[in-house]
Amino acid sequence: MNADTFVVGAGPNGLAGAVTLAQAGLTVAVLEAADTIGGGTRSGELTLPGLLHDHCAAVHPMALAFPYLRTLDVERHGLRWAYAATDLAHPLYGDHTAVLHRDLAVTARNLGADGPAWQRLFAPLTTRFDALAEDLMRPMARGPRHPVLTAKFALLAAPSALRTVRRWQTEAARALFAGTAAHAMRTLTGTASSAIGLMLTAAAHRHGWPVARGGSRAITDALAARLVELDGTIETRSPVRSLRDLPPARTVLLDLTPRAAAAVCGARLPASVRRVHPPPSRTRRIEDRPGRRRAGRGETVGRWSRGPVRSWYRRRSARRASSWASRRRRPPGRYPQPPDASRDLG
Known about the structure:
Blueprint (H helix, E strand, L loop, with lengths): L4 E4 L3 H12 L4 E4 L11 E2 L8 E2 L12 H6 L8 E2 L5 E4 L5 E4 L3 H7 L4 H13 L1 H8 L10 H11 L3 H4 L6 H11 L12 H13 L4 E2 L4 H13 L3 E3 L15 E4 L3 H8 L5 H6 L23 E2 L2 E2 H23 L18
Parallel strand pairs: 1-2, 1-10, 2-9
Antiparallel strand pairs: 3-4, 5-8, 6-7, 11-12
Helix pairs in contact: 1-10, 3-4, 4-9, 5-6, 6-9, 8-9
């Protein structure tokens, strides 16, 4: 296969990159290891014939705000959006439910005493959401087109989600924002964990949370159709384990996880990157070599044996635990001691 550019991975990001390169006049080939394209936007009949289930991503709050999709005219290739009457509902104790409507005023009114605070926070974000989304989705090296707007959002997003929910007093408002912020799949006490909650909520009030008709695979199907229209090619069941598996090309784009990309690139990556993202082949892998016995308790495999390695980890863990405990112990007399409560009893 001859091409100017190879894209490894046919997820939505890989296909979007392939379409961009094809629009620039390059010949592009996309290689996908799985049987179908899509990555996290695949859909299939997982339970009943004719009933489609999304494997991963189902709702796409940022899709309509994504500037790149708007330039492709993907609706011409069959992508249609559908909207629910209510974007999000968060069940509470009893028969109460916190509801996120597309209409900001309706959402605020249903939140009762916290309605004005909710509206004060999200009204500016909703009004200028498209400009803000454009800046946040641009490459950071180019800088924002609306620096004042981006700086204001950064100040709102810097605190943790736990700190942001303290703006409200009612359980409904707090649960509604915390549930949205949890889509970041990180601790809600971490710095800037409010960012995802702010953006997804503002997206709901600006465009709603649409789903793709026909399942999330309709998104990647539309991107694939656009790529084929530009004379690009897509090959499934084509795993790439190393850059050496690819023919010479001007550009190679990897739409992979960091660890999988490290495995494909190997020594071409800097050592600092390889340490942060060790390839899967170097983690928890035991090889059988000629003339060596099978890996068992204490039997040698490669340069190490299982028994000594376990013992070394145990000794290191014990030393660390002992050192930590010694730092925690405070010798009497060197630090202020709490008053003796027994003296006040007599």
